[in-house]
Design a protein that fits this description.
By secondary structure, the chain is α/β, with parallel strands linked by helices. It is built from 7 helices and 13 strands. Helices cover 30% and strands 17% of the residues. The strands form 4 sheets. The protein has a 7-stranded mixed sheet, covered by helices on one side. The termini are far apart.
Length: 315
């Protein structure tokens, strides 16, 4: 019997075995790595305001697409508007991003207890624009615990203005972001935890007097905010919060103007913040993402009865 074919096959197997083992190991590890990615859940509020404003779902889709393209986390936008009917979808979320109507219409109001349980487990939370506005009392107190601050009626104001964000703090959320300015409905004079404990202002500027031209009102002005601006106090419009009990929050008062997500700095701040609240290391240059095209900006817009104008890139 000729043993040479057997010997040749044995030698071939010996040479292949290490490669095969590595490939098998790699193949087995890939699903595990994917499973280990932090899960980000986006909740969108029901339609609000006119076309091109408060585009909750469309804005969430742009952010989620950028995160998934980065490969750093797994982002999911819930299909149905409002708090999930099956809250188990939030159970394993590293961070929950909420973009919705605020105050009495806030989607979390009927679910304070169950949402608080998620926060106590260490889940991160991000509130965008009107979602930062809470009802004083139990909801507002919970926002202070989860987020470190909130937009409070007869205290905070909501003018459209163009702050200049310069300088930016040395914080992971600002990685790769250059100073910028952009017009939006930036709320300011927020209600924060005492002495700003565990709060880091991320975006801040001193508003001009034109932001308080309206008479005093629920969201337009009050003696306290007028005194703060007259006294030269820079106003924080986006902030990071590290809960003493564990978990992180980020409040971002911009987001009224949908087209602003085309501004690379504006968008990067939010993408970085999502990673930070999920306790995922933010890359040195921040989350790199392609600027959304006009077609992408116009996708997933809420049906508000009239056709939205094509957004142009924010400046």
């Amino acid at each position: 019997m000729d043993k040479r074919p057997f010997i040749r096959n044995l030698e071939t197997m010996k040479s292949i075995r290490p490669v095969t083992i590595l490939l098998l190991a790699f193949g087995l590890l890939l699903p595990a790595c994917a499973a280990d990615k932090a899960k980000i859940v986006f909740i969108s509020g029901k339609p609000s305001h006119g076309p091109g404003s408060h585009e909750h779902r469309a804005g969430n889709m742009i952010l989620a697409r950028a995160l998934n393209a980065s490969g750093l986390v797994e982002a999911v936008v819930l299909e149905e508007a409002g708090y999930p009917k099956d809250p188990s979808v939030l159970a394993d979320a590293a961070t929950i991003v909420i973009y919705c109507t605020g105050h009495g219409g806030h989607l979390v109001n009927p679910h304070l207890k169950e949402f608080d349980a998620l926060m106590k487990k260490g889940a991160g939370v991000i509130m965008i624009h009107w979602a930062t506005e809470a009802v004083s009392g139990d909801p507002g107190n919970k926002f202070l615990e989860w987020l470190g601050g909130f937009c409070d009626l007869n205290w905070s104001v909501n003018p459209h203005w163009t702050p200049k964000f310069d300088p930016l703090p040395n914080h992971p959320i600002c990685n790769g972001v250059k100073p910028f300015r952009i017009n939006d409905e930036w709320y300011y004079h927020m209600r924060f935890v005492k002495d700003l404990k565990s709060v880091t202002p991320i975006l801040a500027d001193l508003p001009g007097p034109e932001t308080l031209r309206r008479p005093n009102g629920t969201r337009s002005g009050n003696p306290a905010v007028r005194a703060a601006v007259a006294g030269g106090e820079r106003q924080t419009v986006a902030w990071a919060f590290e809960r003493p009990t564990g978990g992180r929050g980020f409040g971002f008062t911009g987001g009224h103007v949908h087209r602003n997500w085309q501004h690379d700095g504006f968008r990067k701040i939010m993408l970085n913040a999502i990673l930070w609240t999920a306790q995922v290391d933010v890359p040195k240059n921040g989350v790199v993402s392609a600027t959304p095209t006009d077609a992408e900006m116009n996708a997933n817009l809420d049906d508000k009865g009239t056709k939205a104008k094509k957004p142009s890139r924010g400046k």
